[in-house]
């Protein structure tokens, strides 16, 4: 560009270049803490790169931060300079939010037109407390009732007919249980582990979804715990514990369910992928949890990790915008597919990024989520205290120290007492 | 000539030592073996000791999937500085607690022991806030600076060792007009070499493998140490044991080599002067 | 001791006698020693005042509050302490911790001493043996935990297989509420490398001339041990004992990895329960109270040990 006319153009180019450089310097950097490593971390890193590439106002700096039990997050919140967007476990969301450490997302979700219908059923209230929504779920896990068809056949049962009632379950569990020559278990017909599932299946609940009151000693819960107590007594809890000690890692070909050491288990939706990797020859099925008369035959236990924006974050608005983008159906679908989880956004289910990964097994889990009774762990300011009280209740029942009624009443009392601190 | 009884005694000792050694080698061998396995083989029941196939590629993956060398560099920096500061200051402090008698000494020493007793979980948050106010969070400072004030563990250990060194030489040096500092550096320190080396070893191991402090103070992941960085190898559905063990193995190598070759310093080479006949 | 206000003599540590009028005053020597002592100790003292005092005082304050870290602490007086005493898990966790300490510490002390003594004699490949015995102390806790879970596996682990050959149906070890603590103590076997190294260092301080004298007197192996080795090693034994107590009261990560505190709370140690309260239940105030109670208990134990530590022989302590 020589000559007089060229000078003007050169000048304009120089001005443009310096403006561009200037706005690059004016770029806001936000910090994003996430806890996924390996290929999952890779998937998230790719999403972050995409966001950075598609706009130049904000640069997201993601870094790997193991959550553990929240030491680093708590410390950064106490110190007053947390990251802008943080990944946490679900039990941390309400305690932190209630204490004022997290941004209430409700007004922002409203302003972009998001509401309950955009999310899968039962998810909207997850992470909310007393009208304030403190975080968004990342991707969903759901439990299903899985049975090993090969084991069924071996025992002379119809492999396509899983138990549909509690009575059937008891019968089949007994048929499938096999002892070895030393009097130890070689196969356990059914292993109940996540006790809250049966609370709900028996018509009980951990808290009232309307009033949000904790109801650990609900009659349905007591009935379920009684059924579990009978189970632990019949099969001897100590024999079960011994047996459990010998199980291989869940994410390996030595998973006890894959090896036929358990006939029936509570399996998560990730099994849809994991089983194809570790046990491709396994024949298994998944369906709803059986329930007693008058109970709920369509229980769908759901869990997720969460993304939260600290109230004291240096760049809250930018972090919010990024979060909203990250949880849009397209990104949600891609991330969930990478984790073998289910996206929380309704629209993401139909997107090819996720839809392509859906196997018949995974479809069962998705249907359970869409049509069943979805429940999530109660979001309370007491964190894991409630589930720990439940553990203690189950422990004392397992060892025959108390009745289910008394154990749950104690748990209820303790949790209520702890909750008083937060009023 | 070795008598029969002596030979039997020696053989028994050797057998015990070798059987014990085989047992004590188990975790290390498992680590090596696991670092060369595929994911699926790690939890084979019963455990398989020889990986098939042998995945040398795990070590390559280890280097490429995380910035291993950078994390290693950070770890070396933090550890070497910490250990040096800890040992230097602890050696000095322990002298004051052992070789000089002054009022209030023992009470303060119990105070020092007491600081080791309070579980760190309850001081974690206030300590972080304190460092935040100093502006040190996000740097290596919270990990290194406290080392200048000594380690209760090292002070206690050195106190016990100083206490076993007789006062005769020091006394005669004092009479000759040596200052306390000269006695400390020229007489006591050389005699306490095994203790200094032992304390260094332990502090080295703790700093090298410390997870929590680097996690909460190093907010920039470029500064991460290996203990934190290695966690990035695993995901929720796969703990990536082989890679993790490969990383841990490489992490422990310096310690093992240090220990093996520095044994002369730790354990041998101290003559108790002036006492031999 | 009553002192008349008139003249009395005072003998200082190095034998200097001085006359002092009126109330006791320090001699020049004593003043010098105080100044020197403080000077040597100053790095720690300064660090204590500047870096340690605030967090420690803060934790004491929190123990009298309801505090979940993200909201301001709320003063509740002694309630955390009274709640603690009434908490059934307080007794359980203390019992678990004491059990592991009272049985595990002597076990470890004696075993590591034995190995150290064996490796202090002129065996060939001394260096290699010492390294091998020390190795498990540097292996990551997860690896060691996995291996013990296999060793002690009730159904197919080597230990129970061996017992089965003897006709015994072995116990559930880590999976049995009754056997889980003994199993943990067994599993702590690999940790003896640490105390072993310290003993080895201490054994170097035993002057060979004492052994020579003992041999001349015709002492047996046991007598050599009892009258030469043990007394000369006593400062180090005291060290390992006290460190053993302190670490066993505080350590929980290894146990957590191996058993998670179960089964049925049988391995829920005090430090683990404290950790749960601090971070999982957002009860930092309660956890702080737990910490100070532990401090009290430990300090009482340590004072008891120091008071009865007449058996410790310091050649050169002033």
Structure, described:
The complex is a heterotrimer of chains A (423), B (277) and C (318). Chain A contains 17 helices and twelve strands. Chain A has 423 residues and is an alpha/beta fold. Chain A has two domains: 16-141 and 303-367, Periplasmic binding protein-like II (D-Maltodextrin-Binding Protein, domain 2, 3-Layer(aba) Sandwich); 142-301 and 379-420, Periplasmic binding protein-like II (D-Maltodextrin-Binding Protein, domain 2, 3-Layer(aba) Sandwich). In chain A, strands 1, 2, 3, 6, 7, 8, 9, 10, 11 and 12 form a ten-stranded mixed β-sheet that branches. A two-stranded antiparallel sheet of chain A has the order 4-5. In chain B, 48% of the residues are buried. Chain B is built from 14 helices and no strands. Chain B has two domains: 4-59, no CATH class; 66-267, MetI-like fold (Orthogonal Bundle). Chain B is flat and about 70 Å long. Helices cover 66% and strands 0% of the residues of chain B. The radius of gyration of chain C is 25 Å and the shape is flat. Helix content of chain C is 64%, strand content 4%. Chain C has 318 residues and is mainly α. Classes of the chains: A alpha/beta (423), B mainly alpha (277), C mainly alpha (318). Chains in contact: A-B, A-C, B-C. At the B-C interface, α1, α3, α4, α5 and α7 of B face α1, α4, α5, α8 and α9 of C.
